[in-house]
Design goal:
alpha/beta, Rossmann fold, L-2-Hydroxyisocaproate Dehydrogenase, Chain A, domain 2, 2 domains, 9 helices, 11 strands, 19% strand, binds 1,4-dihydronicotinamide adenine dinucleotide, binds oxaloacetate ion
Length: 312
Amino acid sequence: MFRSMLVRSSSSAKQSLIRRNLSSGSVPERKVAILGAAGGIGQPLALLMKLNPLVSSLSLYDIANTPGVAADVGHINTRSEPGMTRDDLFNINAGIVKNLCSAIAKYCPHALVNMISNPVNSTVPIAAEIFKKAGMYDEKKLFGVTTLDVVRAKTFYAGKANVPVAEVNVPVIGGHAGVTILPLFSQATPQANLSGDVLTALTKRTQDGGTEVVEAKAGKGSATLSMAYAGALFADACLKGLNGVPDVVECSYVQSTITELPFFASKVRLGKNGVEEVLDLGPLSDFEKEGLEALKPELKSSIEKGVKFANQ
Ligand SMILES: NC(=O)C1=CN([C@@H]2O[C@H](COP(=O)(O)OP(=O)(O)OC[C@H]3O[C@@H](n4cnc5c(N)ncnc54)[C@H](O)[C@@H]3O)[C@@H](O)[C@H]2O)C=CC1
Ligand SMILES: O=C([O-])CC(=O)C(=O)O
């Protein structure tokens, strides 16, 4: 079983669930559940997952359309206005993630959990702590979805390098917020001889990609369609790994020992049990080495904030 979590908002009022099971006939049986499926990301992601032939059963969960929920949803929208950071979402989302992870621990302890809910740098450590308390934590099955950073890095790089975007690969490491997002353009393929200034600008644009969308939507939300695409891409990679397809490698924010930080995004090989191998960072340029050192304090404090919250 595979879980994708898409939650921004609180619904402390009556929390009824909309549940739909949509069956298709593919083998092996793979169930995908989307939590927060009526949301901006949830709806297009549900569509994309329904189109994925690797999915045999799709369950969609969200809160019911009651006046109380409508009021909550109104609050959610204000919380995604420009001027907020992903960390501002912590107070609302941390509690939701905690509750949903308790439910996951109870009802589907063997699921792969793909965490989209922001701030990912903290919500993944929260999930790990909740799962540890429930005695079912498996670090191979918990993923922070950073695929949108990779999708953006590929798109922006292809534009500047003037290469076909479908052929581009760019690893993105670190986390999923501002400077913690570190694209490794020195490892980008096809190679291109881009100047330092262009690489700096590409790095910044990737780091600020979320803000670019939030500002363009002028208070009406954050990235949904591109995120649904990225979420579906990562889910598909997980399903392929579960099904034994070899050499499925994607960047993801996972429990890690490749730096001194306990969670870190890097290339990960996906297999029948989830994470099969966390890959090394490979050679970094001096600019990237600086970026790596610069991101560590923020990422460390976001991780600690999540761990502290989960243990309160
Ligand atoms: N990892 C990434 O790259 C990205 C992450 N995000 C994050 O994804 C999250 C979702 O974003 P949107 O879909 O735009 O938000 P949204 O507000 O449109 O959708 C959230 C959905 O969750 C539902 N929900 C709230 N509490 C729930 C609960 N307890 N159980 C089940 N469902 C619940 C809401 O009713 C709503 O339908 C946000 O935290 C956002 O910051 C957004 C873009 C990129
Ligand atoms: O910026 C936001 O809050 C949404 C997000 O994570 C992204 O688009 O990368």
